[in-house]
Amino acid sequence: MSVLSLIEVSEGKIKKASYEAAYYASKVAESLGTDAVAVVLGTSSSDELSNLGNYGIKKVLHANDARFDTFDSRAHTKAIADAANASGAAVVVLSFGPNGKLLGPRLSVRLKAGYVPGANELPAFTGNDLHVTRNVFSGKAKASYLTSTEKKIIAVSPNSLSPVKVAGTATVEAFASSVTDADFTTVTKSVDKVVGQVPLTEADIVVSAGRGLKGPENWGMIEELARDLGAATACSRPVSDVDWRPHHEHVGQTGITIKPNLYIAIGISGAIQHLAGVNQSKVIVVINTDPEAPFFKAADYGIVGDAFQVVPALIAEVKKFKSAVH
Amino acid sequence: MKILVPISKVPDTTSKIAFTDNNTKFSTDNVQFIMNPTDEWYALTRALELKEKIGGEVVAINVGLAENEQIIRKALAIGADSAVRVDLDPTDAYQVAVEIAEHAKSGGYDIIITGKETIDYNSYEVGGMIAEALGWNAVALVSKLEVEGTKALATRDIEGGTETLEVHLPVVICATKDLAAARIPNMKGIMSARTKPLAVVAPSGAAKLTSIASYTLPEKEKQVKMISPDNVGELVRLLHEEAKVI
Ligand SMILES: Cc1cc2nc3c(=O)[nH]c(=O)nc-3n(C[C@H](O)[C@H](O)[C@H](O)COP(=O)(O)OP(=O)(O)OC[C@H]3O[C@@H](n4cnc5c(N)ncnc54)[C@H](O)[C@@H]3O)c2cc1C
Ligand SMILES: Nc1ncnc2c1ncn2[C@@H]1O[C@H](COP(=O)(O)O)[C@@H](O)[C@H]1O
Known about the structure:
heterodimer, A: 326 residues, alpha/beta, Rossmann fold, seven-stranded parallel sheet, 27% helix, B: 246 residues, nine-stranded mixed sheet, two-stranded antiparallel sheet, 6 helices, binds adenosine monophosphate
């Protein structure tokens, strides 16, 4: 028996969210009294992958095969299912990211395994039953999922637990799956990545602004604050609708859902559709001129004030703080 | 081009969330149900746009009881040619996906376009499960979709950006925002929806793989700590010392 985690690599490097999946898998393995194994599809080095030992992984099955560098959900699923069978996995853990959102459901069907998407906590086992909690209704409630299938699959919601590093190196073994050339039918035509910035979905801190900023020319201070905090930037929907900011920054019910440690909302009213995308953030700061803005009800810290005064002051304080600690 | 669009029924975002039966059932009291926004605005509308461009047929499918016919008629009013309802109250995504795949097997479809997730369970499951059950390729979080001959070009979200993938038909596409411009049903659509075919089929009866044992609501509303705009340094201190997030 084992617990298998899918570790995703991008340009050879392990994705941040995958470290969390590795750690989660090692914790599940611990509670089942077995070993945590990882499967990696695509080009990477043994040096990079043996680091997974620091997250509790004992063995890495590595298909060091460039064909996997293009995401083909069908081919990837087949290979991961092979790894699950080869390692006798009782539980497969992956990250609830863009790829995991297709791989989890596909694996569920392929392995006839109960699948819990976006788990927020570690699971509990009673006999063959697995219980695990996840957020539902856009974070307005939690549901405890139960599955009793022989194999189980869990997709971990990013930023659900903070990995604690341990000393250790994982052994890296070459892994050959049953995937053949005919299985790879996807071709990457182009990639359009924001460079030099923290990707929004992976950011620990997000600085977000809304219509209260009046116009796109006022985003300089938002970007500066984000840079000083090592944060990503986001915005409300009306702001991206009128092209003040790019569409990929739009968070909320119709945009993306994020779960950073810190979300700073500036000049955003806090409509329920906006909150749906951000209310799972650990700490929320709201800066708004209107003391009645609904966002204050969802906030941990609030400042009633004009963004054009508060944000420059905040930038100065953050710079002071950063130079004091570093 | 024959396109299948799975549509789901969800509580409106502004609904009050409450549970009954010892917190094991979602309370539908005073809840207004709507078609899942991504299904309506993006999946269905892009299917109609593709049909208008290259010809073909758009079929809407829902797995649910007769009360769901209200949203199915809406899909017909927006422009779907016909609809199918699988007469089953599903208890997990697997059951939904198996029923849709069963229908698709004999349907001669080129593309199935689902929404990315439903706004109630936010689970992103059904699309991928349908694809695997059919052995088709799939692309999720798709904000742009073009079809050229037997190939599709799909732009999907990735960490920190997008990428465009070329895939062969048949394929499952899970729609996200911007895939199409939402349409409002007009009078003619609403009238014609009444007479468009809506087939009710019996479920194949797949067993579920998961269940929800219970629900919990958050303990209480957060207590916000207010800080004076003249003392922004205090916020930085609290974020560092109290919240420990910077
Ligand atoms: C079906 C549906 C889906 C939706 N999906 C989304 C979604 O995904 N994401 C989303 O964000 N919205 C979404 N919306 C829109 C949402 O309902 C709100 O309209 C939107 O979030 C408001 O954006 P805002 O807060 O930037 O603007 P406003 O509501 O106009 O708020 C601006 C705020 O700025 C404050 N302000 C003004 N001047 C200043 C200043 N100088 N300093 C500080 N504060 C100032 C004001 O007091 C106000 O609170 C959706 C709506 C619907 C109907
Ligand atoms: N009961 C259902 N009937 C038809 N389609 C559904 C149903 N439930 C979900 N779907 C489709 O699957 C997508 C993803 O839903 P989910 O996996 O439940 O988050 C939705 O956007 C719909 O397109």
